[in-house]
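User: Show me a protein chain along with its predicted structure.
Assistant: Here is one chain, sequence first, then structure tokens.
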Amino acid sequence: MKEACGVFGVYAPGAFVSQLTFDGLFALQHRGQESAGMAVSDGERITVLKDMGLVTSVFDERGLSSLQGDLAIGHTRYSTTGPSTWHSAQPVYRPAGKAGFALGHNGNLTNTESLAIEAGMLGALTSDSDVVAELLAQGFPEEEEGLSEPDEEGSDHLLAALHAVLPRLKGAFAFALMDADRLVAVRDPHGFRPLCLGRLDYKVDEGPRTGWVIASESPALDICGAELVREIEPGEMIVIDATGPKSYWPFGEEAKDAHLCVFEFVYFARPDSRLRNREVYSVRRRMGELLAGQDPVEADLVIGVPDSGVVAAEGYAAASGISFGQGLIKNRYIGRTFIAPTQEARALGVRRKLNPLRASIEGKRLIVVDDSIVRGTTTRQLVKMLKEAGASEVHLRISSPPFSWPCFYGIDTPSRDELLGAQLTPAEMNAHIGSDSLEFLSLPNLMEAVGADAEGHGVCRACLTGDYPTEVPLSLKDRSAMMERELVSSKP
């Protein structure tokens, strides 16, 4: 399972915006580890620096000191549309208007091909983000002396292009954009991917000032010293300039039926993030508590799979009365194994990333809590490793329901053929993985933990149910499976 990206932006005249952007991207490193980049404006020109690799390998003190300006955007990437190459690294830049504009994207469009045809770049497609930037650039006049100040109708060229292009986009997108003088944040009408707004109070020689920060997750605000103001609403576009933030609604009325990806709670987001006015840590702990009430089993020790399974394991241990302990040590210098590009690399990545504490688990009946099972490769390797280390029993407890349907909104699971939950029953999965028992958190319990009702209003759970909020490009095989599921569910 591969998540899309992290985006960050800051408007803070007189502050060291490139350093603030570096710190924000460092806090969002977990969302993408293929490439990193930032764009900085000094009011006259936009400078873009990007490269393949982690934030700390792309930027150094010398590079940051050369990026002087009053506003910036940044990006960490994992590719879902387009190759993993330097050219596809973001922010994307286009030399349109006074100093051009730059764009960073978290999410995945479902109509990229038709948009690429419209933009005249189907044969040169690199990413859905590149297509959006090209469409926006084509919305600028061919000859232009300069951009006017934004007004209530957003009639200058960048805002006019955004109002024209954004309604044509389908799928998931959280954008951070900038031109010479303004920072822009956009969230799609369904709010699939998170995006928040923060206020930054700082001092310069002239005295105290107020700046503004946008980020995929709230910890990126915390590291910069910014205060979380609120989450940006689905369908909202915020334009930030010297007068402060101003909201626009390019998709029409304010969205009424948001669909934040439920796996932001389960896996993707940091536990110290706040989503839907809930701290992710508390939600994951509640998942573990509810999981403990499903199919209890006798055991000696509860352990979590680092990092996203640990908090749920704490909740499981507290609710079950079984001791919580550490059974796996994580190599902090290795990224998430779902980011590895091949199945073989993911399998090898488990042993590179995790090592068992033999003295803690030898001869013990273990309850092992993890967040999900997608392909099953890493889980199977994990169970094998624990038993080789001396565990007498390994009982898997998963803090989400089976991942059974492909996602088209920013998680790279293109086919049901790759999803173990679509191919096997839980009992068959247990036998395939080699665990002594296997239990998934039920869908109603997951909804309770994240604060959604039984129908899942407010969250997207299509990967668990096959009920997609928008039209998606399912294969014929997957459409047949969906029709069969609907037929079975409609029988009395």
